[in-house]
Amino acid sequence: MTSPIPAPGEPLPHYVSTAPFDPYSVEVMTEEQVRVNRASQLRLMWWKFKRHKVALVSGIFLAALYVMILFCEFLAPYNLHTRNVDFIYAPPQRVHFFHEGSFVGPFVYGRTMTLDMETLKRNYADNPADIEPIRFFCRGDSYNFWGLFESNLHLVCPAEGGQLFLLGTDRLGRDVLSRIIYGARISLTIGLLGITVSFVLGIVIGGLAGYHGGVFDLVVQRVIEVLQSIPSIPLWLSLAAIMPATWSPILIYLGITVILGLLDWTGLARAVRSKLLALREEDYVLAAQLMGARGSRIIARHLVPGFMSHLIATATISIPGMILGETALSFLGLGLRPPITSWGILLTEAKSVSVIAFYPWLLFPTIPVILVILAFNFLGDGLRDAADPYK
Length: 391
Hints:
The protein is α+β, with helices and mostly antiparallel strands. The protein has 14 helices and five strands. It has helices at 31-38, 41-51, 53-68, 72-75, 176-212, 214-229, 232-242, 249-279, 283-290, 295-303, 308-331, 343-347, 353-358, 366-386, and strands at residues 96-99, 102-116, 121-133, 135-145, 149-157. The protein has a three-stranded antiparallel β-sheet with strand order 1-2-3, with no helix packed on it. The chain has a two-stranded antiparallel sheet with strand order 4-5. Strand 2 (102-116) and strand 3 form a beta hairpin. Helix 5 (176-212) packs across helix 11, helix 7 (232-242) crosses helix 8 (249-279) and helix 9 packs antiparallel against helix 10. The radius of gyration is 31 Å and the shape is elongated.
């Protein structure tokens, strides 16, 4: 039966269903779609970052290194300044597990040294009759743990009365592996402190230039162009030479950190400025201005958080440059100075070509430098991709 056609002028019949309406019944989503739809921005970034396997492994590697530097004294087989005068320029020792076909456990063979009177080179030979087991969680050289208390507990130690030089020794008979472990504390933290200085300067100066513009923006851009036009190495050398030679190692460490931060803020400031030039025209910025918010509050609470993930990715890529900067300055003798030990200071032992030819193990400090630089670059790539999880 069809409904009667209303006469001209009469209202059309209208029916409204009183049944409850379920908005999810319009489009039925799978459990995976529901999980993604209800996830927060931070969780979406984490899911996308996990798919970048190389970045994930690099992040775990760097996290392990930064945890390691908290316990350098415990992890190093020897004290930083321990000298073994009978084993100067000793090559790395090989770890063995079997002796004459029977399992002994991790051990090294003892060594005998002979001096070549023609070349004055020390020659070391393993003594198969002298088995020196490697000890774990043992007592060895004393150290002052973070200046809090004295201890002599180590993760790995040589045998009683024996020696353990897994990466060889230097010209004073100091263990290279122990010094690399100690040097990681300085080389890794100087990058974090330097990027903190650079981060603050880049956000503040770039944010003010991008938000306010005008004369201030013009002056900031000219200053950035001048700084970026100066070759970095001569500028580093000039600033490092300003520091007095009478300064303590701690003051020199802080000075190098500030220098690296002052020279690296320009790129970050330009990135912040370009973002703020685009975001300051958005409606929510105008609404905040009409409500009486000050410029500093708008920048800190509304503009910068909108691209903070990109800033973090940029910072992780900038840290390797600071580590390389410290290494270069220390290698040239204008950076950190003993008794502070960093990877750059360790590389000063390998300045001479003849030293490298006879004692190539002194170049081992370059290995952690390369690994850390690659890990930070891979981590930065992963964070940059994860910063926009909707792509």
